[in-house]
């Protein structure tokens, strides 16, 4: 029985294009840090992402003492706050702060386009917070359980620290804190923050603290900065007995 000829497959083409975004390292000169660019799996750069150089190294340090930050513009840690003004663009939309991005995601997740439009036009922390509290069918108790809740927080920080015009300055300031635990001491927010100011948080103890979801997100951000590309999982090899019968014919 004559063997069937196999068709040659061009290495430059694939049967179907896969546009899932994947992070890759773009080669750089030995003296420079690798340039990280978001690309789709077929090699096409993602339209919203620019190539960036991560030139900052975050040192491994103790997590203590705790570093409290809040929304006071004159405070040392204000740059960490989700309400720090730091415009960035994502998916064709411009946001004035990480807090606005998170609130807009909440409106999208709960299908409230009218409130979403108002959130995107707002610029102040108080106005955006008030609009977020009125998103339809979106009580905070439900929102914090949404499967994309923590992802939105991480994405907001990622955009702010890596893809804004202030990225270099923000990364340098973040690096000075090493691995110190970051706690968002916002007395008005027990979810993104702890619901207490710094002085009451220190005297009251951790049992009185809220969730600090925004503060906790910096741990994941640090990991991403240190390891910008996630390692690919190896696919297990199939045993000969697991292969279809026609694989062994050829």
TrEMBL record:
Region (Disordered): 1-52, 225-250
Biased composition, class Basic and acidic residues, residue ranges: 239-250
InterPro entries named in the record: NADAR, YbiA-like_sf
Name this polypeptide is given: NADAR domain-containing protein
SUPFAM superfamilies with a match to the protein in the record: YbiA-like
Chain intervals with Basic residues compositional bias: 1-10
Domain NADAR: 68-226
Pfam families named among the record's database cross-references: NADAR
């Amino acid at each position: 029985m004559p063997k069937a000829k196999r068709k040659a497959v061009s290495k430059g083409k694939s049967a179907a294009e896969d546009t899932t975004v994947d992070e890759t390292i773009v080669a750089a000169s030995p003296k420079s840090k690798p340039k990280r660019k978001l690309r789709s799996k077929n090699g096409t750069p993602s339209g919203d992402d620019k190539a960036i150089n991560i030139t900052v190294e975050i040192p491994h340090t103790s997590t203590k003492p705790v570093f409290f930050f809040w929304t006071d513009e004159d405070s040392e840690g204000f740059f960490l706050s989700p309400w720090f003004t730091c415009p960035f663009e994502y998916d064709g939309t411009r946001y004035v702060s990480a807090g606005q991005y998170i609130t807009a995601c909440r409106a999208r997740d709960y299908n409230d386009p009218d409130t979403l439009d108002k959130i995107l036009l707002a610029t102040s922390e108080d106005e955006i917070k008030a609009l977020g509290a009125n998103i339809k069918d979106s009580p905070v108790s439900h929102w914090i359980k949404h499967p994309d809740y923590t992802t939105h927080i991480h994405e907001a920080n990622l955009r702010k620290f890596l893809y804004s015009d202030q990225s270099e300055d923000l990364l340098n300031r973040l690096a000075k804190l090493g691995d110190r635990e970051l706690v968002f001491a916002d007395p008005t927010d027990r979810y993104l923050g702890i619901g207490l100011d710094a002085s009451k948080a220190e005297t009251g103890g951790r049992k009185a603290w809220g969730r600090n979801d925004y503060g906790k997100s910096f741990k994941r951000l640090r990991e991403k900065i240190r390891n910008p590309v996630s390692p690919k999982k190896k696919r297990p090899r199939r045993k000969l007995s697991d292969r279809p019968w026609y694989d062994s014919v050829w």
